[in-house]
Each structure stands twice: as C-alpha cells, then as structure tokens.
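Field reference: sequence -> structure
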Amino acid sequence: MMFDKLIFYNNFHFGDVHLSRTFVREIVKYATARGISCFYKHEKASEILYDIPGLSFVNQKHGDQQAACCVRGDTAYFNTWYAAGNFRYFHTYGLTYNCLYRVFDAGMKQLFGISLSNLNADIEFFVPQIDFSKTQIEKAKIWLSAHGVKKVLISNGNVLSGQASNFDFAPTICELANSFKDTVFIISNAEMGKLNINNVVYSKDIISKDGNDLMKMHICQHFVML
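Structure field:
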C-alpha cells in the first residue's frame, strides 16, 4: 500500500497507550526510514510518548475506536487498542499481551506486507520500554543516593477503565509503613490527600513533575529496581 502519513490512535486511557509503546516505536522507526510521517492521536498521551523519535502528537480522538488498520487517501490509520478490528483477537486471547501482539502483527502485514518478526523475532522485545535518556532523571538520582534503604513502589491511581472498583489505599499504606519502618514506600498518587508518615513519599516530590502519574511512576520504578 502507498501512503505518506501514518496515524496511530487510541481512544482510551494512558495505560493502553503505554502498553503498546514499543510496538509503536519500532513501527515508527520502520516507517520514517521509508519517508512516512508518523503521528499519534490521543487526547492526553503526548507526555508518555515523548521519548519516541519521529512521532508527532495530535490532541484529539479518532472517530472509530474499534476499527482495524485502514488506508484512506495518502494516510494510514493504526488502532493500537486491544479490541481493534471489532474484537478480532480479543475474543480469543483476552486482555493479554498475546492479543496486543497479534493486533500489531496484523497491522504490519496489512500496511507493510511484513510480520512483526521482521522487526524483532522475540515477542518479549515488545514489552514496554522507556528511553530514560530523554527524560529528566537527575533529581531522582540525587534522591536515590540519599535513600539507600529498601524501597517499595505503590501505584494507587484510580482505575479509569471500569474493569475494577476504586478504593482508598490509605489504610493499607499506613499499615505497611508502620509495620516496615525500615522501608520507604513511594506512592504514585496523592489525589485523596498525602499521608504524613516519615517513610512514605510521593513520586511527584521525587522528580518534581506535575501531570499524569504514569511516567512519574515508571521513572521511580526504574530507580527502585536499581
């Protein structure tokens, strides 16, 4: 197929966009090497994709949230949602990485005539990866050097998909922090108010960044694992 522009889109939440980021990165690399301009349509997601070279951001939804890949005129559209293609793979593989792999594999075959395995034969290669060289991590490094104790990261952001019920993490965090005083607990969200406990800190305070918590959480996770 011949097209000049490739537009990825996802009408859902940050987690959906983040989970498919390595697929997108590798396809963008392949497409831009062939002179194709790449964009991503999403209402909120530019912040969590800024480390992908060659990808521009369009702040809007796409009209068809369940469509598969298609080409219209000089533009190709690539739906990055699990249920792309009217649940074509979702009904078989469910909410799994195998499902997402097949969505992207089908898109590559349709748009470029090759399989994802041509980009990398290892399915685990496409697990989400962040290029931390393209983000500000100096403050996190300083914090890490000053806190050489055990650290636990707790992601307590609200579920937006409707697949689970939201609840207040505070009682659990308090119990853990009071039971394990030699451990620092890093909390991703403070919308329900911060806890004033010595060994509880918030990701925002570590990296001094407002906005969505997903990249903050992964920056902190990166350093917790070091």
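Note: The first helix runs from residue 14 to 19.
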